[in-house]
């Protein structure tokens, strides 16, 4: 029977999860009953045996499986580290996108959508000859919000 790469990958991932569960069980808080931890370990070892048996059927030795699990776990740790490092960047990016979205929604309320694109790309003397789009891109929303407030209050009517 030909080895199934998906089944192998799934069992490698299962072994990594089992290792994680066993590690967490070792350092479980005191408030978790010892019997619960014992049952958890028992289930984890059972899952580990099944995963090794399945890998063995697919021709992957325990030594190779352990090496693959180690590689998988190292990769997961690197990804987790990258996520932690990128968190402030993602948060800042989300805020910037939210600001731009709110600005565009406010503009759509004061001018028809069909005219909005032309207005955004046309240099405007009120913005020092810059296009509103360039102000949005550079994060200089202040003048545009000022114009929106003035228009809402009827300053240009």
Describe the protein in words.
With 157 residues, the chain is an all-alpha fold. It has helices at 5-26, 34-57, 62-110, 113-121, 132-138, 142-152. The chain has six helices and no strands. α1 packs antiparallel against α2 and α3 (62-110) packs across α6.
The multimeric state of the shown protein is single chain
Shape: elongated
> What integer value in Å does the Rg equal?
29 Å
Number of helices, where a helix is a run of at least 4 consecutive DSSP H or I residues: 6
Q: Which regions are unreliable across 5 or more consecutive residues at pLDDT < 50?
A: none
Listing every helix as H and every strand as E from the N terminus to the C terminus, the arrangement reads: HHHHHH
> Approximately what portion of the residues adopt beta-strand conformation?
under 5%
Largest sheet: none
Instruction: Give the tally of β-strands.
Output: 0
What distance separates the N and C termini?
79 Å
Structural class: mainly alpha
| Averaged pLDDT | 88
For the structure shown, list the relevant keywords:
elongated, 2 domains
Give the helices and strands, then pairings.
Elements: H1 5-26, H2 34-57, H3 62-110, H4 113-121, H5 132-138, H6 142-152
Helix pairs in contact: 1-2, 1-3, 3-6
What is the compact description of this entry?
This protein has helices at 5-26, 34-57, 62-110, 113-121, 132-138, 142-152.
